[in-house]
Design brief:
heterodimer; A: about 300 residues; alpha/beta; Rossmann fold; 2 domains; 6-stranded mixed sheet; 4-stranded antiparallel sheet; disordered C terminus; B: about 625 residues; mainly alpha; 23 helices; about 60% helix; about 5% strand; globular
Chain lengths: ~300, ~625
């Protein structure tokens, strides 16, 4: 559905995006995460046809981003909600429906259905008088007024209270379940983890890792094994009547089992803990940190061997 | 562009604020606009009664002058009393058919002169009503007006009945008599006053047609040492032209405030981002947002025109006025659009719109005041408006000369602003000078763009120079001419080099001396070609207004010279433009300081060239 090839954007000497390449399948939810200034928003704006790439190509549904037909198939939600505050939700959405060539009767029906789903009343109140959460709902409704196949959402729940944030994340999940292709960026990695099928991690303008979350964990995360023994072994701590030792390799697990057996004890339980996306992200964004973590694990293993 | 799309945006632009204005505000706004629309033509046609009752006259009802004075609003009539003048109760005292006393002051003498004019008008009116016109006006004079040339005015020591304003009604300073200019027909209603050149400057406003005249001009020209510039004009001031020009330029200053705000509001908080991502083009958005303000401005100008026609602008077509004012409306909007694309806040926008108001009002308004005084007034499209409303004929060349620079500049300003109407430029907070460089660099694709941009900026050069002429127009020529030559050098060198500097800053051109020489030469060539093409077009049109020589003397036009000298004169500007643009480009390729140095050198060379050419041509 979306094909991005060697995408590059330069502002003078500064390269905001450096040769990104990725594709998004129809109906997929693709997350882009990264620290501030990583190039996420610039990438999303190039997808939406707002910014012209310095190099590379973007195609949405086989169309170039400057094609009006492509724009009709795309719903863009920027990080802020830049609304015309003197308008009401109804007049605002009607105006954009006209720009997207949506027939009036279809637009009216779709507008009210979407606002119903978003639980937004006060449809004749001026947007300037609305809360930030309500404005965000109107902005989301606008992104859906043309019933697009592709949604490009930049931080959809940024700066909202937890209740509204959850509502919007749930709503986005519903849209994904309806078959919309969604490209999504967020600082809150929990949201990305809960919605996205695949993730790209950007840092300093480049995609430094991408793929399904499980693959990223495998490549950039750590699995921690919590080995519970009946006797104390080196490096263990007492926990709920047993002894727990946390290690990061199967070899260390085996060493723990042998150490327990040497002391006439047994392994009671082994629990595994996957890295969170946040840890994966931190490892990718800061490779030194990952190196430090591995070293620590190795040192722990060496200690336990001793 | 799609008609439906930009009309939808235009409708939205008009209606989006509908919910934000309460009824009272709307009613007050509408009321104010109606009052403005009604009063402006009234004021323009009848003038503000600044001189109503200014002179006090003592006269009895039995006197034949009583009716004359009561008919003239400038006089306040009091009963005659022998000591009234001494006691300061009246300025002039009339007993029977004689003026027996008047105040020994400037006002007393002015009252006396005004009495003469009032009597003359009264008599003319009386004669005009006589059923036997042949008896009333036994001598018929046919007048033929010719356009005054600067050379003529400069040597007009013998007076200048032929060089005076076409309808001013002034009398010649040599006493050869003038006309009251009341009409040009041969039905016998024309009159010659036959008076000798008296000291009042021959001025009366009534003779200049329904919208007032330019009395005093001919008297001013009669002293032989005048140029026809405003500084040489004796009062009374050309009030009719002033008011006409004012009422047409006034609404534009209000319209651009609202227009600038709406353009900037698209840029504040990134509000315009979502329209850019929708399936509408930049052109749709810009045209859609501009259309209501253009139509609004044209509506007011139309209202004023219709009002003036209704109130008796004899001989006026109206449609010529509207056609002439259209480029001006577009120029105001285009300049505001570009300014609003540069401004980073409403505070900056205020500065920008005030600058635009002052500059463009000076360009349009000041020359138009002197419509009947000098052909230089033709640099303003409003001069065409004033002339049309005064019932004067306008040639196509005059119309083109007045309106084309404004129209082309409006197109260029909209084009440059449209170049910035994209996400990457709209929402950045770069300073205004850097935004200007962004706008220019956006048009640079390859080295040949240097020539294209110099051509593109030529209308800017013309209008800026015309604004300079307009601003310096009212000062003595001894100061104005050198000042204009300096302005010409600075403006032309900036126009040729600023886009080169933008190209080097934005790395569109590689910073080498060779490149600087190439793009500098191309820029100079482009400027030369555009300048010459505009000159050739004017030559083909014939009848170049004398203002061309006054404002653009260095463009190559001059007195008759040998063929060799003519060729040299033609090619010398090419060498000048290429050399100076290259000097600036070499500096621009190095650094900002280098550009300043290069530009200064270029301006110096250009100024020296201008002074040489002017001294050669003027002799």
């Amino acid at each position: 559905m979306i094909e991005v090839r060697d995408l590059r954007k330069e502002y003078g000497d500064f390269a905001a995006v450096q040769g990104s390449t990725f594709s998004v399948e129809r109906g997929e939810v693709f997350g882009i995460i990264g620290p501030n200034g990583a190039g996420k928003t610039t990438t999303l704006k190039m997808l939406a046809g707002l910014i012209e790439p310095t190099e590379g190509t973007v195609q949405v549904a086989g169309l170039d981003t400057d094609d009006a037909d492509m724009k009709r198939q795309l719903g863009f939600l920027p990080e802020e909600s830049p609304l015309y505050e003197e308008m009401t939700p109804v007049s605002y959405l009607s105006f954009f429906a006209d720009l997207y060539d949506v027939p009036k009767n279809v637009a009216t029906r779709r507008m009210h259905e979407t606002l119903d789903r978003l639980d937004l009343d006060h449809r004749d109140r001026q947007l300037g008088d609305m809360s930030k959460g309500m404005k965000r709902k109107v902005a989301i409704a606008r992104s859906l007024i043309n019933d697009p196949d592709v949604l490009v959402y930049d931080e959809p729940a940024s700066g909202l209270d937890p209740l509204t944030t959850n509502f919007i994340i749930d709503f986005t999940t519903e849209l994904a379940e309806e078959g919309k292709t969604i490209v999504f960026s967020a600082h809150n990695l929990f949201h990305v983890q809960s919605i996205c099928d695949r993730v790209a991690i950007m840092n300093e303008g480049a995609i430094v890792a991408r793929g399904p979350l499980s693959k990223l964990r495998e490549e950039h995360g750590e699995t921690t094994y919590h080995v519970y023994t009946s006797v104390e072994v080196p490096g263990s701590v007492r926990e709920n009547g047993s002894y727990k030792r946390s290690v990061t390799s199967m070899q260390a697990v085996e060493q723990t089992r042998e150490a327990a057996a040497d002391r006439d004890g047994t392994v009671i339980d082994i629990r595994t803990e996957e890295s969170s996306l946040e840890e994966v992200f931190l490892n990718v964004a800061n490779p030194d940190r990952a190196g430090t973590a591995s070293s620590t694990a190795d040192e722990r293993s060496a200690d336990s061997e001793a | 562009m799609e008609l439906r799309k930009f009309l939808r945006i235009a409708r939205w632009e008009v209606t989006k604020n509908a919910g934000g204005i309460d009824r009272r505000t709307a009613a007050i706004t509408v009321g104010a606009l109606v009052v403005l629309g009604v009063l402006a033509p009234l004021i323009a046609s009848q003038g503000v009664a600044l001189d109503s009752g200014i002179y006090r006259a003592g006269v009895d009802e039995s006197s034949p002058y009583h009716e004359v004075l009561t008919d003239d609003a400038t006089f306040a009539v009091h009963p005659a009393s022998s000591d009234a003048v001494e006691e300061g109760r009246v300025d002039i005292l009339i007993e029977g058919t004689e003026v027996v006393d008047w105040a020994d002051s400037a006002k007393g003498r002015a009252a006396l002169a005004e009495l003469r004019s009032a009597v003359q008008r009264f008599n003319d009116q009386l004669m005009g009503q006589d059923p036997n016109q042949t008896a009333a006006s036994p001598v018929s004079v046919t007048l033929r007006y010719v356009e005054r040339s600067l050379a003529t005015t400069q040597s007009a020591g013998d007076g200048g009945a032929d060089s005076g304003g076409s309808d001013d009604g002034g009398t010649g300073g040599d006493g050869t008599g003038g006309t009251d200019g009341s009409s040009g027909s041969s039905d016998g209603s024309d009159t010659t006053d036959g008076t000798t050149g008296d000291t009042d400057g021959g001025g009366d406003d009534s003779g200049g047609g329904p919208l007032g005249g330019l009395g005093g001009l001919a008297g001013g020209l009669g002293d032989g040492g005048t140029s026809g510039a405003p500084s040489d004009i004796a009062p009374p001031f050309p009030f009719g032209s002033l008011v006409l020009a004012f009422v047409f330029v006034l609404p534009l200053n209000f319209v651009i405030q609202a227009y600038g705000s709406t353009i900037l509001s698209e840029r504040i908080n990134r509000r315009g981002e979502l329209m850019l991502v929708s399936p509408v083009s930049r052109g749709d958005i810009i045209v859609g947002k501009t259309l209501p303000y253009f139509l609004g401005a044209m509506f007011f100008e139309g209202l004023i025109t219709v009002g003036l026609l209704t109130l008796g602008a004899e001989g006026a077509t109206g449609w010529i006025s509207l056609l002439a004012v259209t480029p001006l409306v577009l120029l105001f909007l285009g300049a505001t659009f570009l300014g609003a694309m540069f401004a980073r806040s409403f505070k900056e926008l205020t500065f920008v719109t005030v600058t635009i108001t002052v500059a463009l009002t000076s360009f349009a308004f000041v020359p138009a005041i002197f419509t009947d005084v000098t052909p230089i007034a033709l640099i303003s499209p409003l001069t065409i408006v004033v002339r049309d409303l005064q019932g004067q004929a306008i040639s196509l060349v005059e119309f083109g000369f007045s309106t084309l620079p404004a129209m082309l500049t409006a197109i260029v300003t909209f084009g440059l602003g449209a170049g910035l109407y994209r996400e990457e430029d709209m929402f950045t907070q770069r300073p205004i000078p850097l935004k200007a460089l962004d706008a220019l660099s956006g048009r640079i694709k390859r080295r040949s763009s240097a020539a294209k941009l110099s051509i593109l900026l030529l209308p800017f050069v013309f209008v800026t120079e015309l604004i300079a002429v307009a601003m310096l127009f009212a000062v003595p020529q001894s100061f104005a001419l050198p000042a204009i030559l300096i302005v010409v050098a600075v403006v032309e060198e900036l126009a040729k080099s600023i886009h080169l500097y933008a190209g080097f800053v934005h790395r569109k051109y590689v910073r080498t001396t060779r490149n600087a020489v190439i793009v500098g030469s191309l820029s100079g060539l482009g400027f030369f070609l555009a300048e010459k093409v505009s000159l050739v077009v004017q030559l083909l049109g014939g009848d170049i207004p004398d203002v061309e020589q006054a404002a653009f003397l260095t463009g190559g036009a001059g007195p008759a010279v040998s063929a060799l000298v003519a060729i040299a004169l033609l090619l010398a500007p090419l060498a000048l433009h290429a050399v100076t643009a290259t000097a600036s480009a070499i500096g621009a390729a190095r650094s900002r300081r280098g550009y300043v140095v290069g530009l200064t050198v270029a301006i110096g060379i250009h100024l020296a060239y201008n002074l040489t050419v002017v001294s050669f041509v003027v002799g």
